[in-house]
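#structure-requests
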Amino acid sequence: MKLFAVISSTIVAIAAIPLIPTISLAQIVGYKGNDGYFHIRGLEVNKYYQVNLGGMPLIKSAVANSCGILRIAYSKGFQESDKFEIRDEKKGETYGFENKNLPIIETSRCNGQPTVKRELWKDNKGTLFISGFTPNGALTLRLLSINPVRNLRANLCGMISLRLDTNPPKAFILDGQAYSTTGQASRGIRCRLNTLYVGYPAPTPVNSVSESDWRTQNPPSFSGGITLVQRSGTDWIEIKTEGNGGPGYAGGGTGNGGGTTVQSPLPPVGSTFCKIGSSQLLVTGLTSGTSYYVATPEDDIYSEATATNNQAIFNNVDYTDTWEGQSADIELGKNPSRQFIKVLSVLSAIQSCQ
């Protein structure tokens, strides 16, 4: 009882077999402790586990070439539709991109002449190129769709512990199960002399959900206060997002990227949608992180987008499309079940953004 008293007057010892590497009989469960750590117990003693830091971007450093172009080599981990942000450290500007529907262009060797316009393209090997950065400038990449991983070994109590920093992951993902870190902290658990202790009253457990469900409910989204670079027909436009910048950023900056027009489109007064360029549709008043679609009768037009900052931009909208001799209606709905919400308008009546 002396050891018990030294550790805590409110700590009670529970089962553990000291010094014997065995599989714990306890259910695998998480705890968000008020000691600043997140604990997962019920693991196999001395076994290494790969923990994915769900919702936290993978951060890398890079340098643009003398033409201000960044080259990202093809990787199986970098998938179609992945979102990423790049900060031009000298300009103090952060830009958001999506690896989706990019033109394939054979890239000539850099001749030292800077390319000021921001554009994205691929070559036929899948290598990604992005222009418009400071020549030979330092860049910071945040791969929003790829998470860092940690390889940790369970201790002799069958437990691993991860420190919760100022900007912690949204979840720790282990063996296909996600343990959310966003709940209320409570008394933690501790391993002392190979014996597992829990606080009294017992801490609140964090039960897991499947990784696939968690990722569906928590899609990656761009930071606030950055400039989104998006394709509109054959042109590239830039749209400033609201907010003060993402984790680790002081803000999006105020420059216009060396001659590229920065737009902040808004619908006309009294409307929640508007036309961008010749082939895009902006819809506001949506739920961030939710997938939406717009479509015309018989799906002559069908476009999907995930809302960010309560709005979404739909590409490849043909405003000349007709239905039974008249300008076609375009409807809005939710995915993945194609849940109809409402008809927005006939295409010909949609006004340009302000």
